[in-house]
Amino acid sequence: MIERYTRPVMKTLWSEQTRYERWLQVEILAVEAWEELGRIPRGVASRLKRKAKVDAARVLDYEERYHHDVLAFISAVADTVDPEDAKYIHFGLTSTDVVDTALASLVTEALDIVRDDVIALRDAVKRRALETRRIPVIGRTHGMHAEPTSHGLKWALWWLELGRDLERVERARANMAVMKMSGAVGNYANLPPFIEQYVAERLGLTPAPLSTQVLQRDRHAEVVTALAILAGTLDKMATEIRLSQRTEVGELEEPFSSGQRGSSAMPHKKNPIRSEQISGLSRVIRGYVIPALEDIPLWYERDISHSSVERILLPDVTTLADYLVTQMTRIVTGLTIRSDRMQQNLEFTGGLVFSGKVLLALVEHGMSRDEAYDLVQRHALAQSRNPEKSFRERLMSDPAVQERLSSEELEALFAVEPYLAEVDHIFERIGLCNGHEEEQQ
């Protein structure tokens, strides 16, 4: 991933140097395990820990000759240790015993970072939900004004969805936190299962119950898919912010720092560029789902058609997920919430958004539903064409309405408060009240 969208923690984690150092860690742990079995002389592992080094540039030099990165790595490490100790590096192993084990370790570490990012974002969203639950806003369906609702319910909905995203990330991490050290075709022909168990325990991984030469790639695909769904949530949030920052709406505003400029040509502009960036880069993450799924079928016990894809895909997806979640946390924390504009937009249609309440009241007072619907719709459309006379005034002057509703009863139907009456109940049900963290999803 380009540096523009890479935080330092992910840059270090996915560097070539870190990858080779993780390979070396796996190799030395395997030597320790062989020593425990008495197959390698005591002291080799400790000397390798002290002396063995790996340099990414040196590995590349060897790879240009060998056209095999693991053999290049072994030679580069062997140059730094005693030849007698070097012969035990990669003892009994096949390349993917090292590569897949190290990759699983790196991916789970990356997912730990993303998991912590999501927890921080969820906390920020929760705070926004609690502080805005009593703020009325016009609800919209099909992009059109529908009925009033609580602005806090938008945040509560995102909080719940991020909770499911968190569960998916944790589940993908659990299925990725496995390793294999079972040999060329997965049957332990050249090394006993003890070696695998020993290395797994020290890396915080679990031996795969069964493998071929490689770990099965449905595990890696689950990681990518979970992060793609997370990206979808972020895109959903970003899209809402972008729509709400439109000049005609003006209900939300991204943070705009002192000295920031919005347009090279129009000094008045304050554009939702961070949210647009999140929407754009979410497409990149989702675009990796198909390659990840296509990596699942491999020939027989293994081919390397997946390998080149994963060198790009796994670092990019985890790096972008980390970047986008932290960016969204910054947006949420610094977002300006314009309750005054929300009130203006509620009043924009002259009361049309209360048509549903009027419809129900007329039915409750004896009018048929079809008759009531036609009556309310007729006045609503008339007010839309000619707003000089309000929707409420048109209804009050209609004899059919006067027969069934007093002016006080009709007036009460245009109040916002009933639309917020159950908000506290909803918040309690999902665990957003009184500090409770449990929710029903």
Helix content: 55-70%
Beta-strand content bin: under 5%
State the secondary-structure class.
Answer: mainly alpha
Top-tier CATH class of the largest domain = Mainly Alpha
- What is the CA-CA span between the terminal residues? 34 Å
Query: How do the strands of the widest beta sheet line up side by side?
Result: 1-2
- Kindly provide the radius of gyration, computed on alpha-carbon positions and rounded to a whole number of angstroms: 30 Å
Low-confidence stretches: 435-441
CATH architecture of the largest domain: Up-down Bundle
**Count of discrete structural domains:** 3
Judging from the principal axes of the Cα atoms, what is the shape? elongated
CATH fold description of the largest domain? Fumarase C, Chain A, domain 2
SS summary, helix count: 20
Tell me the total number of β-strands: 6
Average pLDDT confidence is 95
